[in-house]
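Hey, I'm writing a tutorial for new members on how sequence and structure tokens pair up, and I'd like a real worked example in the thread rather than a made-up one. If someone can provide the structure for the chain below, I'll link this post from the tutorial.
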Amino acid sequence: MGEYAALLILVTIIAITFLPPVSDYVKCKDMYITSVLMALNWDGYGLLGLDAVDPGEPPRCHIPVLKYPSDRTPMIAVHIIAAQIGIDNQPFLGDQDFAEPMFLIYLGSGNPDEKTNRDAVCPTGKYSGLPYPVPPNPNKTGGETWSCDEYPFASTVSWRGPASVAAVPFWEQRRQGGIVKEFYRRNLWKQFPYSMNQYPGQGAPFACVVV
């Protein structure tokens, strides 16, 4: 429980410091802490419910929720779900026997630790020689290869141990980069925009829920 206690202290400080001014401040702070507890307990349905009742531009009364679109990168979506459940079934469902977190902390835009994280679990060429046909890209014919996907994302803090990795089509990886980067730009850079941190968005908490 030590890691959860430390995280709860962190997000409580964030809640007190960065939440928007609202008439019912206590209610807003309570919702924020509730959203953190939901993420720590893999309660995706609860987080989607909070996101629906507290819409609008950030910052809001709950941690940002990346609603990861399963229809755009289906194999990556399956890997995220499997990693959060703790399924160990290489090479397509991940390689961890413990549940990876739904609660994530952003490293910040341009942080070199992102490359360090990726290289540690997805070195160049991993899965490139798999003897299985690659699911086709709906927008392109032929020429596709396997790639290595990591969860939690390389752009987040590894606070529960090594990331889960799985083989996914390279075209899905390219698509995922746009999905995640746009979420960071719209939600996390605005939440922590100035450099008390070295990198925009650094330290911003969020949750990842596959939809």
